[in-house]
Amino acid sequence: MTWDAVADVAAAVCFVGGALLALAAGVGVLRFPDLLSRMHAGTKPQVLGLVLVLIGLSLRLRSGGAVWALVLVALFQMLTAPVAAHLVGRAGYRTGKVRQDLLVVDELTEAQDRARAADGDDEEPAGRT
User: Fold this and answer.
1) In-domain check, residue 126
2) What's the longest Cα–Cα distance across the chain?
3) Record's InterPro entries (predicted)?
4) How many domains does the chain have?
5) Nearest 5°: phi and psi at 103?
């Protein structure tokens, strides 16, 4: 077996694995019951699935310039997906979309209460019970 054949087989395995992870992310976003579970399903397997597809593509293309471009795409995806998930989770928490009964530790409520007390704002935010 030549190097080209091995690289093509590895690329195919990466493509299939990445596609299955992207499918799992989509199913998880549709089927999970609450915001935090959906957020997890939308970020973790999606990023790993994209990285696997990019690895498969770089194995298939075997071009230096294309591989560096794919590395940049993977790097930016890994940098931006956690930030976006954090912002979505924070917005969902502030608007009352997070189920409080599922939280084991809730440090954000304490921090928000301290900030509200420091500002002198005694009003309860909309959506929280």
Assistant:
1) no
2) 73
3) PhaG_MnhG_YufB (IPR005133)
4) 1
5) -80, 135
